Automatic annotation (TrEMBL), chains A, B:
PROSITE patterns: AA_TRANSFER_CLASS_1. NCBIfam families: PRK07568.1 (NF005744). Belongs to the class-I pyridoxal-phosphate-dependent aminotransferase family. It comes from the Bacteria. Its EC number is 2.6.1.-. GO terms for biological process: amino acid metabolic process. The keyword GTP-binding does not apply. Gene3D superfamilies: Aspartate Aminotransferase, domain 1, Type I PLP-dependent aspartate aminotransferase-like (Major domain). This is Aminotransferase. It comes from Polaribacter irgensii 23-P. Its cofactor is pyridoxal 5'-phosphate.
Length: 420, 420
């Protein structure tokens, strides 16, 4: 069914493409046509139009925290003495990788500088990882809902995302191992998880990671873990990295980023971590082709490693308070179900609406409460199974408590008024 | 023959991959195996070893100028007042794109902010352009020798590079149009040129660009021009952008970067420019998936647009002096042929050696003149036709005149001593 819909979409896209062709246009690629729009950013024009009409918009759609970047990182850039802004080493300088390896060791991830490739954001880390292990037509199994841009990177790499559904009723826990095994084919190259999860906020237990270990070893697969929210675990729970398990040395790949850890999303510095040297050497070739990560951001990221522990204690406390506020306010609204996140700073909420894409756009175009409205990310873009998540939205709790309370108040009023 | 060699390489790579397989390793992708090493960077470990032995290395291998970045750009970053280093807009802010469009208009390229997508370096601009117009198996025709990383981006995108040879005897002028036409198939999506050329330094005339216009219009192809060296034209010659020609609106794509223009290679800010809105909207989807270009570098790049014209006059004067010095010194060496560059800051030199890969490595490993040696880029990596360029190297004239004179002196002494 899913395949049939995809085929229809492709035929339509091709017709569209051929239509242009008759006007003597060179044609866009199939992958360019299939490339999804970001569910987090596609409604930006509607938000901008609302703002032009004088309506304030609370941005719950994007994981852009209002938390300050550590001063030590900001200062390092302000005090830099570069006269020529030169290329950095493709895989990152030995100094930075050595210092970064110490951060990992401290976090129970026993790696050395040679196990790291510095990338331009977690985005590029994912792209290099996918490119290094999969060819067009290969498959990667991902529990869904998943970070929407995995679809984008998969399309860019020609890789097919094979979703395995996790349910809001189970708080989006790891699907049963049998569900994974059913999906493994000769084309399967990896299982990809996000832990703690974006958009679900789910934190996989050590037991769940052990289950994944067994399955990837049995089938010779890579296990890619997007661990960019490593620090953001709540309620006394701790994070288990796929690189902390013995026996996964050849299989485990961690994708990482400074974006969320230090609230420096605009730096665009990430990292690939793996003990599989064949994989690392391949990723370095991708890194060489694009020359180097951004030099100023490397200065900020290396300095950020000196951020005092108190920064993280404060930030975590703030996120827990925001989460508690958001969840308790959301649960007051009739018809709303929300998964309680144990990590990251997102939650998925099920709303009493039929089509959250339409609802999210309506919030920006047709609704306001005393000239204020909210922007949320429709969840359909976080699924690759057509039709899934149509009554869900992702909410990022990246605003302060008062703004969150007001945002939910607006959402509640909107739901009452929404014609559905 | 070329295809046969590629097939053998693939079989060997697969054997290698399968060997690992027997040890229960998940396997690297075909594209990962085929991904070329950078000819510019692959010898870096030998250079580092030489330095550890106390040998100074003159770096003629990489287009990393010693020219200072404009003060206005450096100051903008030093004086920034950001407290949270946030994401930028995926395609670049409207302010920056508007200001950048004015730069293009001033350079006889009539575009608006909507024709621009800001990228993370020229590298990403090329990657998004290739991804937006071609699928695995599609073909792009490129005059060779060409910028080595085109091979890397093509491999990453699954695109086949179809080379059309330009000759050192003709100073690397545009190959005859019939040579292009012979190579066009139903899979051809674009012709890609670099103008002024890296590694050749060749500057295409308006007449040559007109010839390319005819052929892309006749066959409905894109014409991608890498114009990152636009400012670097010498001897009173001027640059012709593919976007300055009428009638190419749907076909022309310019790939650009701040790296060379403002000597800020480490910024990693580039740009895609096209009047084809279907193409631009597709490229924006690729841009959204990777979230945003680096924020600090955007601050530097926007400020760099206020660089006074005198900066470019001085820089150009300096490069002309360097070029003249380098070429006249090289021509003194017996057996050396060198193409006289009219733009950019590279030249290709033909040396009396059989294998310039071996020679370049030997320079670093086994040779020094009073504890000094030079690093050059073997030209074979700038060709995709196997066996081509084996007696050529690319030399970047990014060092001052005295260093260039000394470098050629070292090269001359090395050629006398080299066992060949």
């Amino acid at each position: 069914m899913c395949a049939l819909i995809k085929q229809c979409e492709f035929i339509i896209a091709n017709l569209h493409s051929n239509l242009y062709k008759t006007y003597n246009m060179p044609s866009i690629s199939r992958k360019g046509i299939e490339m999804p729009e970001s569910p987090i950013r596609k409604l930006v024009p509607y938000a901008e139009a609302a703002k032009k009409r004088g309506v304030s918009v609370f941005h719950l759609n994007i994981g852009q925290p209002d938390i300050k970047t550590p001063q030590v990182a900001l200062d390092a850039v302000k005090n830099n003495t570069l006269e020529t802004l030169a290329y950095a080493r493709s895989e990152g300088s030995e100094e930075y990788r050595t210092k970064l390896a110490k951060y990992y060791v401290k976090n129970n991830i026993p790696v050395t500088a040679d196990n790291l490739v510095i990338t331009t954001g977690g985005s590029e880390a994912l792209l290099f990882a996918m490119g290094s292990i999969s060819d067009p037509g290969d498959e990667v199994i991902i529990p869904e809902p998943f970070y929407a841009n995995y679809n984008g990177f998969a399309t860019a790499s020609g890789v097919t995302v094979v979703p395995v559904i996790s349910k809001i009723e189970n708080n989006f826990a790891l699907p049963k191992i049998e569900e994974f095994e059913k999906l493994i084919t000769s084309k399967t190259k990896a299982i990809l998880i996000c832990n703690p999860g974006n958009p679900t906020g789910y934190l996989y237990s050590e037991e769940e990671i052990e289950k994944l270990k067994k399955i990837v070893l049995k089938h010779d697969l890579f296990l890619i873990a997007d661990e960019v929210y490593r620090e953001f675990t709540y309620d006394g729970l701790t994070h288990t990295s796929v690189l902390s398990l013995d026996g996964l040395e050849n299989n485990a790949i961690v994708v990482d980023s400074v974006s969320k850890r230090y609230s420096m999303c605009g730096a665009r510095i990430g990292c690939i971590v793996s003990k599989n040297q064949e994989f690392i050497q391949t990723a370095i070739k991708f890194a060489q082709a694009r020359l180097s990560p951004p030099t100023y951001a490397l200065i900020a990221s290396e300095a950020a490693l000196d951020t005092p522990d108190s920064y993280f204690t404060d930030v975590k406390e703030e996120y827990v308070a925001r989460r508690d506020t958001l969840i308790s306010e959301l649960e007051k609204i009739e018809g709303v179900t929300v998964a309680n996140p144990k990590g990251a700073f997102y939650c998925v909420a099920q709303l009493p609406v039929k089509d959250s894409d339409h609802f999210a756009q309506w919030l920006l175009e047709d609704f306001n409460l005393n000239n204020e409205t909210v922007m949320v990310a429709p969840a359909s873009g976080f699924y690759s199974t057509p039709g899934e998540g149509k009554n869900q939205v992702r909410i990022a709790y990246v605003l302060n408590k008062l703004d969150l309370i007001r945002s939910v108040e607006i959402l509640a009023a909107a739901l009452k008024q929404y014609p559905n």
